[in-house]
Input
Amino acid sequence: MKTLAAGSTIGILGGGQLGRMMSIAAAKLGYKCHIYCPDIGNPAEQVSEKATHASYEDCEALERFAKEVDVITYEFENIPVMTVEALKLKTAVFPGSRVLKVSQDRLSEKIFLNDLGLATAPYAGVNHLDEAKKVLEKISYPAVLKTRRFGYDGKGQAIVKSRSDVEKAWERLASDNIIIEGFIDFDMEISVLVVRGQDGKIKCFEPVENQHKNHILDLSIVPARISNVLKAAAIKQASKIIENIDYVGVLTVEFFISSNEPKLRVNEIAPRVHNSGHWTIEACPASQFEQHIRAICGLPLGDVKFTGQVRMTNLIGNDILKLPDLLKEVGASVHDYGKDEIKVGRKMGHVTRLISPEY
Ligand code: AMP
Output
C-alpha cells in the first residue's frame, strides 16, 4: 500500500457537488485537489487548488493533468473508459476502469451481479422491436425498458404496462441497445455505501432508506426501517460486490426490497460516492468523502460508526430559496453547492437533520 504524503495533489475527473465535497474532505486530510472537467465555474473547482477545462477525449490535456497530480479518481460514472485507461499509464487511478466497463452498461452490470449469485430483476438485452415484443411475452407485463448506457435519475427508461405500450416506448427511447427488466413491485429502496482500502480492508456504512420524487432522490432516512437480518444481507452482498471488482474507494449499491422472495434485489451499482451518503458528513467520524480519499491515498479507512437517527433532504431547484429559513433551524446542517443557476430538477444543495433527543 503506497501512502500519499500530505501536501500531494489528488486529480478528480468531474466537477459536480460530489467532487466539491470530496475536495473539502481531501483538504481536511492535508491534500490539494485538481479538478478536470469540461465545464467552467463548476461546484468542485470553487473549493479546489486548480482546474483544467478540457474534454475527456483531449489526449494532450489528459497527459498534462496526469503529470501534475499524484493520484486520480472520478466523481461520476460516465467518464469514458478510454480516458481512465490512458490516464492510468501515467498515474494510478482509483477505482480503476473495470468497474466503469461493468456499470456503464446495464446489461453487463446485470450479468456481473447474477454471476456473483445476487438477485436482480429478471432481464434480457434486446436490439430490435420484434425481439423486445418476444422477450416481453416471457418476462411479462408490467416491465421496464431502459437504454443500456447513459441512463440516470429515471432518464432513458419507460414502463410498459401492456402490449399496446411497447411500440411507443421503443420509439421514445430511440436506441437499439435496450435492456428489458421485469417490474419489481418493491416496498422500499435502500442503498449501501461500502468502501475498500488499498490493503483490501472493507467497511460499510449503515444502510440507507431512500425516497424519490420524480425519479430524483428526495429523502434519505438512516437507519433504514428494515430488519437486522435484511441489513446484514445487504451489507454482505455489497461487500461481495466490492471484493469482486478490483475496487479501491467508495462504491454504492442500490437495492429493491420487496415482501415476496427474493426480498433483496440489486438495482444498480454506482462506482462513486453517492447522494444517499451525504448524511455521513455530520453523522459519522469519517464521511463517505473522507473514506474515499483515505482509500485512494493509501491511508487506513476511518470509523463508520453511527448511532441515532438522521434525515437528509435534497434541495432541488427552487428549494434552495428556503436557505434563509433553513439556516435558522436548530439541528439542521445546510449545504449549498454554489451552482450559478437554479434549474428545475437540478440538485442545488441538501440539508441533514440529526435527530437526537435534545432537538
Ligand atoms: P435506475 O436508473 O435503474 O436506478 O432507475 C430509477 C428508478 O426507477 C429506480 O430508483 C426505481 O424507482 C425505478 N425502477 C428502475 N428499475 C425498476 C424495475 N425493474 N422495477 C421497478 N422500478 C424500477
